[in-house]
Amino acid sequence: MIRIAVNGISCAYGCFPALDGVTFEIARGDFTGIIGPNGSGKSTLLRAMSRVLKPSRGAVLLDGRDVYAQDPRSVARRLAVVENDGRSEFGFTVLDLALMGRLPHLGRFQRESAADVEMARACLESTGILHLEGRKITEISAGERQRALIARALVQEPEILLMDEPTSFLDISYQIDVMDLVSRLSREKGLSVVVVLHDLNLASQYCGSIILMKDGRVLASGAPGDVLNQANIREAYGSEVMVVRHPVHGRPHVIVLPKPDPAARPRPVERGRIHVIGGGAMATRLMGMLSARGFSLSAGALNVGDGDWSEARRLGATVVEVPPFSPITESDMKGNVEAMVGSLAVVLANIPFGPGNLRNLEAAAEAAAMGMPLIIVEGDGVACRDYTGGKAAASLQRLASAQGDGIRVTRCPDDEAAVLAVEDLERERGAVVSGEGGD
Question: Can you give the pTM of this predicted structure?
Fold first, then answer.
């Protein structure tokens, strides 16, 4: 059953257009997210749907009737709005604010009943702020005010809930609490929810459908998997992203790729390429030092989103990538070894080891066996960063002590020593090449 239909609406602020021919439908129990860059028309769309900004063209229909032709009180009994600004200059208590949600249900001069008060207190409890019921709105935090506004909307007993960035002022824990609460109400009570969100991953996790806005128009709409892709996000936001499947809920997970910083790019010095085996953000400083000295870089295998992955991307390195939270596969390891070929040296940073990245040690051993110089940064020792029950420590010890048959392994106490070892290798190679070319 279609509860609300937006039929080709256009809106403007004076001579400035804000919406242009927007059309979609919301059915009973739908949980729909509206996303898009700043200025794309998201909040304007909610204002048009809630009888605040009348469209210049088209119509917003509630059960087939134009909302602007209906009595405001009757619309308010069915449709509630949570704005994204919880500030108030008036000293209402939190309970007073929640009770305002009962106004559409009260007659003229009618006061709230005991049942109304209990309903308000129940909604405050469901949003986690019942303990603040006697506090003034002006005396609580922005996040607490936001939850009070959500409670007020729930007290209206709406069939449709419009929410404009409800998680803007909340920390991570309360973001999830609010979205869990609204999602549960949508399922249990058939509440239709339309929520404007800036966080694409929250939209993906909670919304059954997503509307992507750009320049006042619908750029894409549908299930999260249909809307949240690289092409759509690039067109809407002008950003490069990687979209992967989240390992827990299986929905699209958007990772924004860092933009190269021209000021941080290596100087145009002809020096060799160094392959860095990193992880856990332990190779970030090392890669920066090598890059600053004019070496080109490759790196891997790194989980997307890891600090070392971000730094390698920023420095323009070629990166062997593994999906977030995923173990390194046999295929990933082979790709890592292939990326090492042709490098001046392979540097193994003092990274932590767990079951998921042990194959990085195997890749280092294979590189050494193939005759590539291997530099190991030992730091404070492997014991404090081995989470494999000793497997990593044993493998690293065998690797660090391997010599002969073309194997060259250099052990360094820290990043500075590793960079010096790299420059020593470069000088050696230059001397050999010069000697081969002499009389």
Answer: 0.68
